[in-house]
Amino acid sequence: MDRRVRRGRLTFDVQDGGSGPAVLLLHGFPQDASSWRHVVPRLRAAGLRTVAPDQRGYSPGARPAPRRAYRLEFLVADALAVLDDAGVEHAHVVGHDWGGAVAWAAAWRHPERVASLTAVSTPHPGALVEAMRHSDQAWRSSYMALFQLPWLPEALLRRRVERMLTGSGLPADRARRYAARMAEPGAARGALNWYRGLPLSREVPRPVTVPTTFVWGERDPFLGREAALRTRRYVRADYEFVPVQDGHWLPELSADVVADAVLRRVAASG
Fold first, then answer.
1. Which residues pair with 53 in a beta bridge?
2. Which pLDDT tens digits describe the chain residue by residue (270 residues)?
3. Is the dihedral of CA 82, 88, 89, 95 positive or negative?
4. Crossing angle for the helix pair 152-167 and 172-182, nearest 10 degrees?
5. With the CA atoms of 20, 22, 23 and 24 taken in that order, what torsion angle do they form, in degrees rounded to the nearest 10?
6. pTM above 0.85, yes or no
């Protein structure tokens, strides 16, 4: 069932279906909720309810222009608002890429709402900062500095995003879909504002205390091994690390592995 969730002046598109314990699925850049399309059937077949929003900047009705509107604390509040609207008090939270950053922050800010956490591709933000000092992670993340510039990144994203995505391993049909979405009014700016809002965030990364699984692609060009290995230090609960012989776009490249990891985490968390 597709529905819309109002949060102030913003309206979020949400895919919601199934019954049973709820799994909140948070997509990354520059994707949308359809990135989970091969994961969702496995979860619903196992008796779970899946709630997958198009997040801030991606839902056509939720594309505020100022970069300050994309501070991490606001993105977490969006996720909780989606759960509130769905009548869900506790959810198993799954996030990929930027959605993973939101999932980590939700777990340390609101552990009472997070039954378990499955981070896909995205290491704990504290581990990522450490890795920038001790490995090639700063080079891997150097594109983030480009994204801070005005207007130029929007032009690049609209013109070259399909080529950029296929070059990093995303299937061509998916790249075409996301390129078309980025051509919508306000979409490129909204997606890039996730990066631009990061320096304005008031969040300080903290360890999480909820059961956690981290699924990481060994051939990820953006997020390297050092940050992946350091993530364990930031989890004060049961933890599973799942390395995958694949790249960054794991919900689409390794959907069965991701679904299996989520199901194990849900089962272990009760």
1. 14
2. 699 999 999 999 999 999 999 999 999 999 999 999 999 999 999 999 999 999 999 999 999 999 999 999 999 999 999 999 999 999 999 999 999 999 999 999 999 999 999 999 999 999 999 999 999 999 999 999 999 999 999 999 989 999 999 999 999 999 999 999 999 999 999 999 999 999 998 889 999 999 999 999 999 999 999 999 999 999 999 999 999 999 999 999 999 999 999 999 999 987
3. negative
4. 170
5. 150
6. yes
Which position among 27, 92, 124, 248 bears the catalytic label?
248
Decide if 248 is catalytic.
yes
Structure-token pair, residue 238: 């049961």
Count other Cβ atoms within 10 Å, centred on residue 206: 16
Distance CA 110, CA 90 (A): 10
At the topology level of CATH, where does 2-269 sit?
Rossmann fold (3.40.50)
Among residues 242, 236, 240, which one has the least CA distance to residue 258? Answer: 242
Neighbours of 112 (CB within 10 A): 9
Asked if 116 and 94 touch (Cβ cutoff 8 Å), the reply is no
Residue 4's SS3 state is: strand
- Contact by Cβ (8 Å): 27, 74: no
Locus of tokens 């399309």: 37
Q: Which pLDDT does position 270 carry in this prediction?
A: 72
Q: Which of 78, 97, 220, 246 is catalytic?
A: 97
Give yes or no: 239 in active site.
no
| Catalytically annotated residue among 58, 70, 178, 195 | 195
The number of residues making up the chain comes to: 270
Annotated active-site residue 97? The verdict is: yes
Starting at the edge strand found earlier in the chain, the sheet holding 49-53 runs 2-7, 10-17, 49-53, 22-26, 91-96, 114-120, 212-217, 239-244
| Token pair recorded at residue 24 | 């909140």
